[in-house]
């Protein structure tokens, strides 16, 4: 088979790569279509050795797909030229996160041949929204390397950190973000721990988040801290190496609890001006009432001061919220056997008839 992965954003790659690995081992051909308008060719070429086709926009991608006539094309988001593509290929929709944003479900307004779903509750909800479409629960392919042990984590000592210390992972999203609410010297308050900081890709690439990058530069000066570089595409090595996760509205929270490790939800985030005051409805529309879903995933910190007390408490008592973590994993992440990518490839092979 010939499989194409529509890689609109570089951070889709951790979701695609485990599937690509299985496909390649079975003798299938994979191609990654990447967008110059969204991604740095330098970051791709330095970080990964992949068969890449660069395009400027979705129209150019569409023309390539129609000419290639692949068996399957993966999309991490909605795509506006499906009628032409479905004349020559089948399509897969595969989300890159498992958070509660309404956009997760609305991507399926334009149906693809199949959409692979992670957890049982997500499958139930999306079937109710789109009862005529084809959804198959398989799990969350991104985490396969963690569950199989293929991803062993970072070399802590090589990063200049102390391998005898416990490790905090701070993975803020770009919006709404708690990043700008953290003090400039916060690593100093946690000198007894290693600190790994892995921001969202947009923090590095969008001009709007200049102040966030300034914060990162200040934190990177502390000897107990490693700040991820733009070339650190995958969060998986960071999760494998960490004992606890701090975040706010990132789907990383759901991924981390699937490893049965504690999380702290930072409720002291900053909203863009376009989400504040009279524009608060925009925030509600984008993130929805499903944000209450974070309520029981772990301890919540209403301020940085509260976080200072919460981190040592959670690390000393990792069994807290274990039952909730198990429930969240079943409902949102799905099976944790490391075989999600295998299930996906089995489906592609089973339904690889050349007629879409």
Automatic annotation (TrEMBL):
Family matches, as SUPFAM superfamilies: UDP-Glycosyltransferase/glycogen phosphorylase (SSF53756)
Entry-linked Pfam families: Glyphos_transf
UniProt xrefs under InterPro entries: Glycerophosphate_synth, TagF_C, Teichoic_Acid_Biosynth
Organism superkingdom: Bacteria
PANTHER family per UniProt: TEICHOIC ACID GLYCEROL-PHOSPHATE PRIMASE, TEICHOIC ACID GLYCEROL-PHOSPHATE TRANSFERASE
Name of the featured protein: CDP-glycerol glycerophosphotransferase family protein
């Amino acid at each position: 088979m010939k499989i194409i992965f529509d890689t609109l954003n570089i951070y889709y790659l951790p979701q695609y790569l485990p599937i690509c690995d299985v496909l390649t081992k079975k003798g299938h051909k994979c191609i990654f279509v990447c967008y110059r308008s969204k991604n740095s060719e330098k970051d791709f070429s330095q970080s990964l050795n992949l068969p890449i086709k660069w395009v400027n926009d979705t129209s150019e991608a569409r023309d390539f797909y129609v000419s290639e006539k692949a068996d399957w094309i993966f999309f991490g988001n909605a795509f506006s030229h499906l009628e032409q593509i479905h004349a020559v290929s089948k399509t897969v929709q595969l989300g890159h996160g498992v958070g509660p944003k309404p956009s997760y479900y609305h991507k399926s307004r334009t149906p693809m041949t199949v959409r692979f779903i992670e957890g049982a509750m997500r499958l139930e909800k999306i079937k109710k929204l789109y009862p005529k479409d084809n959804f198959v629960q398989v799990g969350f392919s991104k985490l396969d390397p963690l569950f199989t042990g293929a991803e062993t984590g970072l070399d802590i000592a090589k990063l200049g950190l102390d391998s005898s210390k416990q490790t905090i992972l701070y993975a803020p999203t770009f919006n709404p973000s708690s990043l700008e609410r953290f003090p400039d010297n916060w690593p100093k308050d946690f000198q007894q721990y290693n600190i790994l900081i892995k921001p969202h890709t947009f923090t590095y690439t969008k001009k709007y988040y200049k102040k966030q990058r300034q914060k990162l530069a200040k934190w990177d000066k502390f000897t107990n801290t490693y700040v991820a570089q733009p070339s650190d595409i995958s969060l998986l090595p960071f999760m494998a190496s960490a004992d606890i996760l701090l975040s706010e509205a990132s789907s990383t929270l759901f991924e981390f609890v699937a490893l049965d490790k504690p999380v702290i939800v930072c409720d002291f985030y900053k909203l863009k001006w376009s989400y504040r005051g009279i524009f608060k409805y925009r925030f509600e529309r984008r993130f929805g009432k499903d944000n209450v879903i974070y309520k029981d995933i772990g301890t919540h910190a209403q301020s940085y001061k509260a976080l200072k007390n919460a981190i040592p408490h959670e690390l000393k008592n990792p069994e807290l919220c274990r039952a909730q973590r198990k429930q969240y994993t079943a409902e949102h992440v799905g099976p944790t056997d490391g075989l999600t990518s295998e299930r996906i490839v089995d489906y592609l092979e089973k339904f690889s008839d050349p007629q879409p």
